[in-house]
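Journal club prep — side note

Before the paper discussion, L.F. wants everyone to see what a predicted structure for a comparable chain looks like in token form. Sequence:
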Amino acid sequence: MPRTTQRSHAGEGRLAGNLITFLVVLVIFFASLVSFSLEPQIGAIPAFALGLILFALAFFIPKQLLGRSDSHEVK
């Protein structure tokens, strides 16, 4: 069922989803910081690789996967 009200901005009415996404990305980012500190336990190369992978996920989830909601026009 289409919405009858016009939104003033793209994120209006999506507070719960935005908060959940923010928390997930924040947890992934903090996990990347923690993985850098695991160097004495697991070694330098695995800790650095894990940290870079987690940091890339925390950066690219909002940037590429979620994207801008107004870039896809519905005709």
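L.F.'s comment for the group: The radius of gyration is 18 Å. Keep this in mind when we get to the figures.
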